[in-house]
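dude i think i finally got it to work??
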Amino acid sequence: MTSLRHPRNAADYGRVEELLRLTLASLTAQTSGEYVVLVVGNRAPGFDLGERVRFVPVGFAPPEAAHGPHADRDRFVRDKGSKIGVGLLAARPYAPDHVMIVDADDFVHRDLAAFTARHPGHPGWVVDQGWVYSRARGVYRRQPAFHRTCGTSLVVPFDAYGVPAHLDETATQEEVLAGYGERVDHVLGAHRHAVEWFARHQGRVLEPLPFRGAVYHVDTGENHSGKRLRGLARPLDPDFAACYGLPPVRRTTATLWSAVGPRAVAETALVLGRRALRPVRRALAAGARS
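look at this
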């Protein structure tokens, strides 16, 4: 399940749709047919979604922009959370066992649907180890604590979301926000502390997914976080692309240069230098306070 930002909150909505097209190619490259994809948004994409993908329209007003066309975090969370809430309402007739909320520019492992289908009734998983990928550079690298960085990181039973029985997918945004309550801020529109929220409020312990289940796509120009992949990385290879449903690639000199060239080396050295200086800065700050 994924959601699209309002066209008025995008720097380039054509780019948003192109990123969605790539994400859907990944989601529908599953080795199992035990899945359905729901896309919630204000405007139907201008391309064929395919038979396993359904668009769910909403008429929500665009969140007020803060920097350029993008909304600030609170308004972003409210917009995304209410759209995902509608998506869960639309998912109810499919009687799903598990749900994964996916950002509309990320990618998932091709065996994810097959894996979850083999574990009906499981309390859920968290992608704690994944990848970060820059299509702009043609490179990728391991991403530890993945669920702290990327929203495409939880596979949770449908029942865990407490979908309001009195609402359907035609509900207004205010009705959706009221129906889900704090779940909008903690698990539908944001992800950083969702694992703790499920444990605290439901006693639900999410198990680490036993493989790198997702890819965080950065350097897109439409990431709300503005995240970029700098420094040394691996050049994209056909095996990685096939595993996550990315477009086929051919390793070139330019890709290798981007992955391990002088600029990548310099960026990595700068990051390592800053990390090495942190203890010194903390010690100096502590001395100044004493």
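The chain is about 40% helix and 15% strand.
im so relieved honestly
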